[in-house]
Amino acid sequence: MWKGADEPLKFRVPPSSLRSAYCLATGRGRRSWCDGRAPFDTDRLWVTVQAPRGSPQGLARYSAVTDVHGVNHYPVALGNPDPALHEVGLWTDTLAASTPNGSVWTTLQVCWSWSYDASGNFALPTRREERYMIYDAIVNGARNLAFYGAHNPKCWSAIDWTFWNDVLAGLIREINARSPIAPALVNPGSTRKLASDDPSVQAISRRGAGRDLWVIAARSGAGSRSVTIRGLPFAARRGSVYTEGRSLDAAGGSFTDTFERWDVHVYRFRLPRLFAGARVAAA
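Given the sequence above, the corresponding structure tokens read:
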């Protein structure tokens, strides 16, 4: 992929100023944008990442000059005991509403300028925080994820692999191309939004490989709560909770589980072999 102008809306770079680069690099867009010159690389995608600001209407203007439209948002900062992690999902959703082709890229944080100070103190996302942000982005429409700041020595020494070993490596294994959930992650067309009795819970289902039905549910509300999620096929009965080593039962298209703040539970249901067009519980 090629990366286009960084945060163009924030820096007041109009889409018209990006047409020539987009056309010359990719051959896409209107032919006149290339000004009679031949494009040099039609095989790669063009990525434009925005700052977390602007309206869907304002951001949508840039979709004409990019193949992939994204956003970066880094809520964890040094000295902030209660970061608003769900803003990652909210901004991802805003970009999804601004990008007709649905190709949305969310850049998640490792280390950024507000992660550290001049005295050598720094704050990085915990595994719980990073995991929530990953799935919050996915639930809200991200089809690509990137992680920013692992190169910054202000957040560790050159030989310190703690964050990678304790946080990021396991999470990447959880969602990478060889993971059990991978077929569902690359099948966004099967996404169904599910209802719950907690307004701070967002939940979706997706079809995976074979007879797998995956459910991703993320909660941003304070405290602990028992949450009922509805809208599964009636054929979904027994599900395993991905990476948690436990199972639960569904009945009548719904199930109940306990969520703390920033909890993400990912469920894998195995539908009957003859499942086809089964009734779905009313939301």
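DSSP finds six helices and 13 strands in the chain. Try to locate this feature in the token string yourself.
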